[in-house]
Amino acid sequence: MLLIECSKIKKYYGERLVLDIDSLKIFSGDRIGIIGLNGIGKTTLLNILSKRIAPDEGWIKIYGKSEYISQIEPPEYKKISRDMASKFSINHTWNESMSGGEKTRFKLAGALNQNSNVLFADEPTSNLDIDGIEIMEKHLSKYDGALILISHDRDFIDKLCNQILEIDDGKTKIYKGNYSHYKAQKSQEINRAQAEYDNYINEKRRLQGTIVENKQKSKGIKTTPRRMGNSEARLHKMGGQKAKSNIDKKVKGIETRIEKLEKKERPKEQAKIKLDILESNKLYSKIILEGKNINKSFGEKVILDNAEFNIYNNSKVALIGPNGCGKSTLIKMILNSNPSIKIAQGAKIGYFSQDMSILNKDLNILNNVMESSIYQESYARLLLARLLFKGDSIYKKIDILSGGEQVKVSFAKILLQDINLLILDEPTNYLDINSLEVIEEALKEYDRTLLFVSHDRKFVANVADHIMTIENKKINIFDGTYEEYQSKIIKNQNAEKQDIQKQIFVLENRLSEIIGKISMMPKKEELAALDKEYYDILNMLNKIKESN
Known about the structure:
Elements lengths: L1 E12 L2 E12 L3 E5 L6 H8 L7 E6 L3 E4 L12 H6 L12 H13 L5 E5 L7 H13 L3 E5 L3 H7 L2 E6 L2 E6 L2 H42 L9 H31 L26 E12 L2 E12 L3 E5 L6 H9 L5 E3 L5 E4 L12 H6 L6 H10 L16 H13 L5 E5 L7 H13 L3 E5 L3 H7 L2 E6 L2 E6 L2 H37 L5 H23 L2
Parallel strand pairs: 3-7, 3-8, 5-6, 6-7, 12-16, 12-17, 14-15, 15-16
Antiparallel strand pairs: 1-2, 1-4, 8-9, 10-11, 10-13, 17-18
């Protein structure tokens, strides 16, 4: 069933053509992830498709009811059903004092409660922890209308989308499949484009070589010898002129073939980033961070109670867990040299935070990163280019940059500093997927100790080799990747389910025994005891079943 169609869409910001879409149709069952660089027009496209804003040219039609989940704006509805509120673990009434994660879940619950045909979502995983993202995935996967969303969470798009819409230079292109399929198709496109370019260059060089050979032949045709008679000279000259003319015609023909060759552009090459950190900057301690008897509370709320942990040299540790469990608190305790946490001698900490306090607002991008860089300017330019600051853009002042651009400059500045212990607090927020993957690549190559907080599961899976969690006021570190950590959790959950099933089996058997004894008409006192035991066991069974 056709739900959205548009034609000849154009949208300008000033003189800049942001979107130029010939036609686009969206059907029920389509689950589309919109991707592209920061500032490329993703939110603009979503707003045009949802008719929140009008295009400058063209038309759009929506057939049926639609809902829109905004990253920033409050919802139109201030109350949702108690049943839906219960499913999302939130209050059924909107309140500005709710946390960012609660507000996001409220918006989704409200949108799903409207029985819409189309659901638009702009960065719906913002402010959500991993548990919250998984709750959102669970409910959106059951939504039976068309889903059109913007997200930098690759795992989220992978699990929910069956099409990827890429925006590049104002144009849109649809790729069938989820984000992983899109990446595979893009890789094939690049390989194919490279092969076509190589063939074009090789053929052009071959033809140019043939031209050079023929021109040499033309030059080599001998002039008439001086001692030759007039008639002989005339014949010699005519033969030479004819041969030269034929060669010149051949050269012109080859030049025409070169002109008619279908020109192929060289695919954009992405230079690899390798941080060649100075040997003198290495740490040789086995343990870089050691925490013992760590206690922290806010009023009556206890965050950490006699907790401890060790972070080993050159490990990449992802600190994950639900919002409010104490992740940022622990990071601050490390940075503030809490007496319970010992930092290895010679450790030089580089810290990334969301407030961008590392940036000097009075300097341009290049001067900012070079202000504290231990690397050559050529390397700084390479890193900035990979983060899409190319040409004269590196001379932009910080105060005119978007939030995502400031994140990238902050990250570049930290990486180029004289550090050997890198601590990152949510480094992937505000980044487009391309920039996120560049940072991910740099961190995979980083050969020092890394501690980072993130709710991005793909980022954690691709970078971390240790997983740190805060549970029951204790700090736990799992020696292994996120995938291995998840496997362990699933294994433990399955073991718990088996134990619960055994419990249920034993209790149900006991209920059958009690019913059997009651049917035998026991004495009054025994009947009362059996009756009490029956209801006690029944209550236990109900509680076990409700909690699982």
